[in-house]
Amino acid sequence: MLDRLARDVAAVVPDVDAEVSHGRYGDGIGGFAEPKQIEFVADRLDERDTPYHAIETEVPYPNDTQRCDIVLETDTGRLPIEAKLLRFNRANGDIEPTTYDSIFNPLDGSLVADATKLATSEFDTPGGLLGLYYERGDEEAPVFDPHRLAEKLADDAAFWFDLTVEPAAVVEFTGLRHDIHRQGAVVVWDIAD
């Protein structure tokens, strides 16, 4: 399911990008904050048929007051997914200094910490992680390749939390309208039971 989700999200990101503009940060999806990007993508997926007809966002954890970014109804139960923007440049092209911490810092609030939060939750399955990765279209070599990023997060989850998090898919997209965030990938990870 996570592999399919990655392919489907990568397919809808350019569609959403063609329709939205941020008043301050330019044309396309790239300048928007994480919650808005997740909302845009979820709404577009919901317009498609199953399994996204019952996609939910900002769902309370069964055993906590925190909220899970995305929950999908599947044949085997509810599939919780925590999501983050993997954006190493700001909308003006400057380096975004907080991105590394928002992905790899083992403290609460990062993507690697979200893996342990899902693994210990009372959802039907531990679920997965989803990253919306953006890179500059004019870079010869991006700050962080999405495939290397996927492997590093898996290594960090094992190191910090003794947790098996496997990269499930990296699906690239291109042709976005934003001046800086011109291309990218959807990266998903599966959290082992």
Keywords:
193 residues; alpha+beta; two-stranded antiparallel ribbon; globular
Secondary structure: number of strands: 8
Portion in strands: 25-35%
Specify the structural class: alpha+beta
Total domains = 1
Topology:
Layout: H1 2-19, E1 21-22, E2 26-27, H2 34-47, E3 56-60, E4 67-74, E5 77-87, H3 99-104, H4 111-119, E6 128-136, H5 146-161, E7 165-173, E8 181-191
Parallel strand pairs: 5-6
Antiparallel strand pairs: 1-2, 3-4, 4-5, 6-8, 7-8
Helix pairs in contact: 1-2, 4-5
Write structural notes for this entry.
By secondary structure, the protein is an alpha+beta fold. The protein has one domain. It is built from five helices and eight strands; from the N terminus they run H-E-E-H-E-E-E-H-H-E-H-E-E. It has helices at 2-19, 34-47, 99-104, 111-119, 146-161, and strands at 21-22, 26-27, 56-60, 67-74, 77-87, 128-136, 165-173, 181-191. Strands 3-4-5-6-8-7 form a six-stranded mixed β-sheet, with helices on both faces. Strands 1-2 form a two-stranded antiparallel sheet. A hairpin with a 7-residue loop joins strand 7 and strand 8 (181-191). The two termini are 15 Å apart. The mean pLDDT is 92.
